[in-house]
Specification:
Layout (H helix, E strand, L loop, with lengths): L6 H6 L4 E6 L4 E6 L2 E9 L9 E7 L2 H10 L3 E3 L8 E5 L6 H16 L4 H7 L7
Antiparallel strand pairs: 1-2, 2-3, 3-4, 4-6, 5-6
Length: 130
Amino acid sequence: MDNYGWLDGYLQSLDCCEKDYKAEWGWFRYMIGGKMFAALCEISEKYSKFRPGKILTLKCDPLMGEAMRNQYESIVAGFYCNKQHFISIYLDSTVPDDVMKLLRREAHRLMAATLTKKKCAEMGITMCSR
């Protein structure tokens, strides 16, 4: 993962994080309550709208996502995701670790907030807002 070898462990350290590998996509997905908040994958040359490379895709508030895309060249609209609610970050970039950690925490928080109170209680998490 180039500059971000710590990323997998950091994502898995989040409350109630579930990780799986979607073989047909070649994606490592990170979920809470069965809902994806992050994914690690590699973009091949066949996707002409994106440059090839390893990426981290994260759930993101639309306004924050727009601000991040304007500030960092290597942060783009989400690859193969809702372009308004996800961003993708090229892992060969110079996006600072603290920014990566902030975005990762925010992705987890945003997705946890979509869970029902019942689901949160079953999972033993308190950050749900429903």
